[in-house]
């Protein structure tokens, strides 16, 4: 018997290219887009290994755990790395980036995470991009958590490499990702003898065998289900309207933040400045976070609550209100479960959340 998820016709080059155009439209970019057949770490590593090389110097902005990973890859490529680390409950500023670039004029590559879902902060990319472009460095942005949740304009912001994934605000699977690549980045890759070639990490292979060849034949068989899911995500976002999608995420963040504060019981926002908090997820500071999450999940196993990773498990709770979960219903369910776990009444938190949600959307 046939099965709709198994007995599928091959994905044609034409359909693959149309999905590529949909990603470009989502990013408002005129740069080349490469859809990569794996989780977003694939294009992120590919960008770093293509753009960094022995003799280069990279500024690696660390505002969460992924910055550490990027720094390790950059060093592995033989680049000298300047780490600009800020506390995980804040955002980096354009002034801090400018100071680092002025102190190290040899920097020719900058890596930054837009929104840190793991820690709940978001960085001012537009201002940072202007500083990086004035310096002349290549600018790589991890926008996996921000795409669909907040404004993202790689061309206008001077981003040379903008990596996205489908699994968060886009509401899709983790097995497909994409990167927009500027002409400056392509030139940098081509000049790097250590850039991956004949490799799954190679972006240059995609350029030569797919883009430059007129997008007539795919270099290898695509991850078909993930590609179809990515197309469905793009269609759903287009149907709702990207401004409405980002507004819904902002409202979910505002409602979660307001409701959490109203819970009391020592719960406070992990990122104290609201303007520096990411709309994709809200992080909360609370004692015995892992225990609180366990109790909350015991009350409602379906709520998207997790304790922070590593040492943060003792003090941080993350409310993942992204994709279809960026809704007032999800926020209410999370707050109700947290109220039960903390043995406090839920009504003040729910009222504060509903008021914040309404204010954010009107």
The CATH homologous superfamily of the largest domain corresponds to: Type I PLP-dependent aspartate aminotransferase-like (Major domain)
Question: Can you give the helix content as a percent range?
Answer: 40-55%
Report the β-strand fraction as a percent range: 5-15%
The biggest sheet, with number of strands, parallel, antiparallel or mixed sense and barrel status, is: 7 strands, mixed
Alpha-carbon distance between the two ends: 51 Å
Arithmetic mean of pLDDT? 96
Radius of gyration: 21 Å
Class by alpha and beta content: alpha/beta
How many β strands by DSSP? 13
CATH C-level name of the largest domain: Alpha Beta
CATH architecture label name of the largest domain: 3-Layer(aba) Sandwich
The string of secondary-structure elements, in order, is HEHEHEHEEEHEEEHHHHEEHEEHH
The total number of structural domains is: 2
Spatial order of the strands in the main sheet?
1-9-8-7-4-2-3
Number of helices: 12
């Amino acid at each position: 018997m046939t099965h709709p998820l198994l007995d599928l016709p091959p994905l044609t080059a034409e359909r693959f290219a149309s999905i590529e155009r949909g990603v470009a439209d989502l990013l408002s970019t005129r740069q080349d887009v490469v859809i990569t057949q794996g989780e977003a770490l694939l294009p992120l590593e590919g960008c770093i290994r293509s753009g960094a090389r022995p003799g280069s110097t990279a500024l690696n902005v660390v505002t969460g755990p992924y910055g550490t990973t990027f720094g390790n890859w950059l060093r592995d490529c033989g680049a000298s790395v300047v780490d600009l680390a800020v506390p995980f409950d804040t955002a980096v500023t354009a002034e801090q980036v400018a100071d680092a670039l002025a102190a190290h004029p040899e920097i020719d590559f900058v890596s930054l995470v837009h929104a840190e879902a793991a820690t709940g902060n978001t960085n001012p990319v537009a201002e940072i991009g202007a500083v990086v472009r004035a310096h002349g460095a290549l600018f790589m942005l991890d926008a996996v958590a921000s795409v669909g949740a907040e404004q993202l304009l790689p061309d206008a912001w001077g981003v040379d490499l903008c990596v996205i994934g489908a699994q968060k605000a886009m509401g899709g699977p983790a097995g497909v990702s994409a990167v927009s690549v500027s002409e400056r980045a392509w030139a940098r890759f081509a000049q790097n003898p250590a850039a991956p070639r004949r490799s799954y990490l190679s972006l240059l292979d995609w350029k030569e065998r797919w883009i430059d060849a007129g997008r007539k034949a795919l270099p290898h068989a695509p991850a078909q289900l993930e590609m179809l899911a990515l197309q469905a995500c793009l269609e759903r976002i287009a149907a709702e309207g990207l401004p409405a999608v980002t507004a819904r995420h902002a409202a979910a963040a505002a409602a979660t933040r307001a409701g959490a504060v109203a819970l009391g019981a020592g719960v406070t926002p992990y990122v104290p400045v609201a303007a520096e908090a990411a709309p994709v997820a809200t992080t909360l500071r609370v004692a015995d976070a892992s225990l609180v999450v366990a109790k909350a999940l015991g009350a409602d196993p379906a709520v998207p609550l997790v304790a922070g990773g590593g040492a943060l498990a003792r003090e941080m709770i993350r409310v993942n209100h992204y994709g279809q979960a960026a809704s007032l219903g999800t926020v209410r369910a999370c707050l109700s479960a947290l109220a039960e776990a903390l043995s406090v009444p839920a009504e003040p938190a729910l009222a504060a959340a509903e008021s914040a949600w309404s204010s954010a959307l009107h």
